Every structure is written in structure tokens, then in C-alpha cells.
Amino acid sequence: MSTVQLERDALLRRAVQQAASDIVLTAGHPVMLMVAGRLEPMAGSPVIAPVDARRLAESFLTPALHEKFLRDLELDTRFHLPGVANFRVNLFIQRGHWGTVVRIVPLTVPLPGEIGLAPHVVTRLLGVTRGLVLVTGPTGAGKSTTIASLLEQVNQGGQRKHIVTVEDPIEFLFEAKNAVIDQREVGSDTKSYARGLKGALRQAPHVIFVGEMRDLSSMAIALTAAETGNLVISTMATQSASQTVTRIIDSFPPHQQSQIRSQLSLTLRAVVSQVLLPRADGRGRVAAREIMFVNQAVQNLIREDKIHQINNVIATSLREDMVTLDDSLSELVERGAIAFETAYPFFDDPEKRSILQKRYYRVSPVPETAARRG
């Protein structure tokens, strides 16, 4: 093993030990760690020279990937360090220098209860045999972890099922228990999300996981797959159920949108929109989630293009296991999981925010510079 590989492995081990979620390796800066949502320098790390930034980046690459990176100037790949963790690696060029950002992916796939998903919600999410379930949120919101936990629940369930995933790149590595799991990586196992998803339809799946519905083609195929008898789980970089529905519909040409509204109203089963927030005790982060299950009211609103009213349905459907983000934030604040100041910018309802502030804190309002929705 080369010196740079030893340095890389030592760096990765140290980042895992410090509970980092991401590592940023950029020339002109020390090694930076994302810990509990905050970027901070690794203690004792010198400023990275351009030549060292390149050496570290190249240590993650095979000859074939090295050639691909030089051609495309950006690359997503994965790396496994036995006994430590899996890593999702993004390489790029900035101002002529090599840069790398590494996402740490635990070796063990968590179960839903370990990441705050209530059993009755999990039962409903996985109780459907066909349709579309979406987990959404901004970058770094823990979407991959949430979906991995749901797939692991299926993997450990009482019925044998076939799970097919299409990912770019593969993040969590599953150990088959009571399911057959085929994980396909875009670039090495299939040419694109759309082609991988289309192929999955012919592989007798019970559950299909598509890493991201990122373009019209993958959205169209996912909707068709969900419509024709498969449970399709995917992610989108949207921040609420209503925004998710709008994004899907607006991705299609205007002359198709009426048809897509009808199709989506019949195939969409649930949207879980989440954000990760630092814990009050400083020990990692916790997810606040908006949870929407599609009932008759939501179906009608989608079909009739009254998507802006979906939030009202969620707010009045607690008995159907729906939860607004405001209610999720309130619950986390009330049990001391997060500080009110942390939750403040993410509230939608000013009245609920004000009530909570008066009940728990005597602080001046926090400036809404990080408001969740625009």
C-alpha cells in the first residue's frame, strides 16, 4: 500500500471517529469536516497543497475512473474501507485544482425506528404493494439513510421479496436476509437512471428504488412502473409534499400536464419531506419530517390543480398519520431534542412559532435568513 493510500485511510478513520458526515478536501484549506451540520477544520490538519489535493483525489480512482475523470472533469464514485465505513466520493476541478468531497456512509444499515420513523408510519409506507413513495429534502437531509432504512425493513420482513435498486453511486451495501437485493450502479451496471429503471421492470421486482428522479425520462418511467404494479421508492431535492407534486408536473410539457396530474393522483402514495437539524446536546443531528399520505382529498387536489391546498389537508389529517413539518419541529423542541433557535427558521406558521417561543424561551426572534421555503 502506498504512502498516500495510508494517509487516505488514516484520514477516513479519523473522520469516522469524530462522527463527521462529510469530508471536504480542497487546495488552500485544511481538511474540513462536517460535524452535526457545521463545517470545521480537522484539528492539526495543515493547509492542503494542490499537489496533495490531487494525490488524495487520485487515491480513490481506478485507472478507468481516472481516465473518465480527466475526460468529464467531475465524477461520483464509491469507496469501501473494511471495518470502518463506506464512502460516496465526489471529485471535481476548481480553479484548476483537484477537489474531493467524501460522504460517510455507515457499514450498518439502520432500521426506521433508529432514525425516528414511527412504526405506524413505516407500516403505512411499506404496506402498499404498488405506487410511488418519495423521500425529499435538500442536499444532506438524510434522504438516502431514510430510504435505506425502509429497504432494510423489507429485507428483514416476513415475506421474501425482490428489491432492485438503481443508484449513482451505490451508497449503503445491503446484506441479503429475507430478500433478494440487486443493487445496480449507474455507469458501471447500467448506462442511466432511465435505462436502469426500464430494465428493472423486467426483473420481477417487488420494490424498485431509484436513487433520484432527476429528469423527465426517469420521472415518466417511474410513474409508469408505479402504475403497472410495482412499489417504486425514490428521492427528489424538494422541500415539501406540495413542492414535490408541483416539480413533477412542471417537469412535463404543458400539453401533458393534465394527463400527468391524473396519473400522479392515482400512483402517488406518500411523500416524506425532511430536514436534518443539529441536536441540542451536540451529539449529531435529528430529522424533522413532514409526512403526507395520499387520500381522496389529496388525489382530488392534484387532479384539479389545487396543489397549494395540500398543506391544509396534511394539517387536518393527524388521524391518518400525516404530520406537518411545524408539528414535527414542535415535538422535537418540546422533548429537548433540538433548540428552539435551531427550529425557528423552518416554521411555516408564525402563530405556532410564536406560541412555542413564549412557552419555552425568552429570546428575541431569530432572523429568518434561512427560511425553509421561498
UniProtKB/TrEMBL annotation:
Pfam family, one: T2SSE
Single GO term (MF): ATP hydrolysis activity
Stored SMART domains: AAA
Domain called AAA+ ATPase: residue spans: 129-297
Highest taxon in the source lineage: Bacteria
Family: Belongs to the GSP E family.
Xref: NCBIfam families: pilT_fam (TIGR01420)
Protein name: PilT/PilU family type 4a pilus ATPase
Organism: Eiseniibacteriota bacterium
Lineage of source species: Bacteria, Candidatus Eiseniibacteriota
